[in-house]
Design a protein that fits this description.
Blueprint: E1 5-11, H1 17-28, E2 32-36, H2 49-53, H3 65-76, E3 81-87, E4 92-100, E5 105-109, H4 117-121, E6 125-130, H5 133-147, H6 152-171, E7 180-183, H7 189-205
Parallel strand pairs: 1-5, 1-6, 2-5, 6-7
Antiparallel strand pairs: 3-4
């Protein structure tokens, strides 16, 4: 397989991280594997549904980042891993797991991946997607109501109570660790071409 390249894609909720990930996967297909930080939310079966709804899912402590780091180390060593699968409708991990295969390029995507120093040290290229807050909240409302079974009121309440303050406290400052900051996400064609060229040159080397 040759040397494995790891790419971190961070940025606030609704910033366009997934659009960038999709464009990379569309271009390079089976040479890319993706690991989502969201899959590593901590298991909270000891709490009731109502208690789980009230948790702060935008704080670094909500994630089992140590498990993500160990999975990434395995992938970098060329070994497949079993990743948890998160179910947003029940605010908890599902009973399923997902096999992620090693590939020439491994993408790690999530709002807080650049907030963890050890995780950053395992990423060869660190991207931060920088998108205006009003655009991000509108995208989050559409996504959470349409795809995650949330009510409009619950999305707005969660945004004001935890998403916005945690973004300001943890997510936004983490962009100082980025190698490249991409305004307006995957629709920034100039930045996207630079990223795709960097990956292409890695592929040709390998």
């Amino acid at each position: 397989m040759g040397e494995i390249m790891t790419i971190g894609i961070a940025g606030g909720t609704g910033s366009g991280k997934t659009t960038i990930t999709r464009r990379i996967v569309d271009r390079f297909g089976g040479d890319v594997s993706v690991v989502y930080h969201d899959s590593f939310y901590k298991e909270t079966s000891g709490l009731s549904y109502e208690e789980r709804k009230k948790l702060n899912y935008d704080h670094p402590d909500a994630f089992d980042t140590d498990l993500l780091i160990s999975c990434l180390k395995e992938l970098r060593a060329g070994r497949p891993v079993l990743c948890p699968v998160y179910d947003y409708t029940i605010y908890n991990r599902s009973e399923k797991t997902a096999v992620v295969q090693p590939a020439k390029v491994i993408i790690v995507e999530g709002i807080l991946i650049l907030a963890d120093q050890e995780l950053c040290s395992l990423l060869d290229v660190k991207l931060y997607v920088d998108t205006d807050a009003d655009v991000r909240i509108l995208r989050r409302i559409i996504r959470d109501v349409r795809d995650r079974g949330r009510s409009l009121d619950s999305v707005i309440t969660q945004y004001l109570a935890t998403v916005k303050p945690m973004h300001e406290q943890f997510v936004e400052p983490s962009k100082r660790r980025a190698d490249i900051i991409i305004p307006v996400g995957g629709h920034n064609d100039v930045a996207m071409e630079m990223v795709l060229d960097r990956i292409r040159s890695h592929m040709e080397k390998g």
